[in-house]
Design goal:
Blueprint lengths: L2 E4 L4 H12 L4 E5 L7 H11 L5 E5 L5 H11 L3 E4 L13 H22 L5 E7 L23 H20 L3 E6 L2 E2 L8 H11 L3 E3 L6 E2 L2 E2 L1 H12 L7 E6 L5 E2 H12 L5 E3 L15 H7 L7 H17 L1
Parallel strand pairs: 1-2, 1-4, 2-3, 4-5, 5-6, 6-11, 7-10, 8-13
Antiparallel strand pairs: 9-12
Helix pairs in contact: 1-2, 1-7, 3-4, 4-5, 6-8, 8-10
Length: 322
């Protein structure tokens, strides 16, 4: 019984693969190791996973539909954890076709692979995003809220992935679950995320860029509070044709300026702040209602932002020394 993890060299993919391997699950990981951010970080994550006997890796692009089909037919995984995608809201303004290739064509390739497996596939779990909610005043965000006003192309591709998944579940009996992640952070994170960019700038003595003059809130979610419920969901075997979507978030939004102050304390540094206007494609707040996940899987986030950023800061100091 094998689990296929796409985006295994990515932030969430790495941590999810590690947890599954520690539980004795064999994992086949794929990633294209693109240069959206430093591939050395992705290689380092893979080196950590390579220590586990049950891990195998293949460098493969999600947009390589023939390659994806061949791999799935060869490996015959009983579960697929589809976390690979082109990430980033702002980058979607610069390289839109990267999102069409990875997030649309790539997602469709995985759905076709799931379709080919038929009853052999017990569960397809895939990454969506809190960005599908767009800009809205009503909080917290609930799964049944209409996601019809995405603020970026990235968000639009993630919402499209949900629609495609729902149609494939209905047509071909695939059991699938989409997870809307809310601002995931922690050790081995993504260098394009605000907390990492701020830490990097502070260590280098550069000012940090604070958009919308700091008038923003994010539902920060520590990585352990993501992969633990994710692993439980993946193990669950839903009825054929069932499609569900869940929020995974800390359910406790933090003001951007409070996050910066917390990070400053964790690093023992003070940031010089440059206040800037709102960036295109961004939203002022995110806030997850996780009652559905709590009801179905007993999920309850436990890591406070103070503790999570302290853990990140400790890891980050070591990473810089490497």
């Amino acid at each position: 019984m094998t689990i296929l993890v796409t985006g295994a060299a990515g932030f969430i993919g790495f941590h999810a693969s590690k947890l599954l391997l520690e539980r004795g699950e064999p994992v086949v990981g794929i990633d294209n190791l693109n240069a959206y951010y430093d591939p050395a970080l992705k290689e380092a994550r893979l080196a950590e996973l390579a220590r586990y006997e049950g891990f195998r890796f293949e460098k493969l692009d999600l947009a390589d539909t023939a390659g994806i089909k061949s791999l799935i037919e060869r490996e015959r995984p009983d579960r697929i954890l589809h976390l690979g995608a082109q990430a980033g809201v702002r980058y979607s303004l610069e390289e839109p076709f990267a999102y069409a290739n990875s997030n649309l064509m790539g997602h469709l390739a995985i759905l076709e692979g799931a379709r080919a497996l038929g009853d052999e596939l017990k569960h397809l779990v895939y990454a969506s995003s809190s960005s599908v909610y767009g800009e809205r005043a009503q909080v917290p965000f609930k799964e049944e809220d209409a996601g019809n006003t995405p603020a970026s192309l990235y968000a639009a591709t993630k919402r499209a992935d949900e629609f495609m998944s729902a149609s494939y579940c209905s047509l071909y009996g695939i059991p699938a679950t989409g997870l809307r992640f809310f601002t995931v952070y922690g050790p081995w994170g993504r260098p394009d995320m605000a907390y990492w960019l701020f830490a990097d700038a502070m260590f280098a003595g550069r000012p940090i860029k604070v958009f919308n003059e700091g008038r923003m809130e994010r539902d920060f979610t520590y990585i352990d509070d993501v992969v633990e419920p994710l692993s439980r969901i993946l193990t669950d075997a839903p009825a054929r044709g069932r499609h569900e979507v869940y929020n995974i978030g800390g359910s406790s939004p933090v003001k951007l300026m409070d996050m910066i102050a917390t990070l400053e304390r964790a690093l023992g540094l003070t940031a010089e702040k440059v206040m800037l206007p709102m960036q295109p494609g961004d939203v002022t707040q995110t806030y997850a209602d996780v009652s559905k996940l709590e009801r179905d899987y007993g999920y309850s986030p436990s890591i406070r932002i103070e503790d999570g950023l302290a853990r990140f800061a400790e890891w980050y100091r070591g990473w810089r020394q490497r």
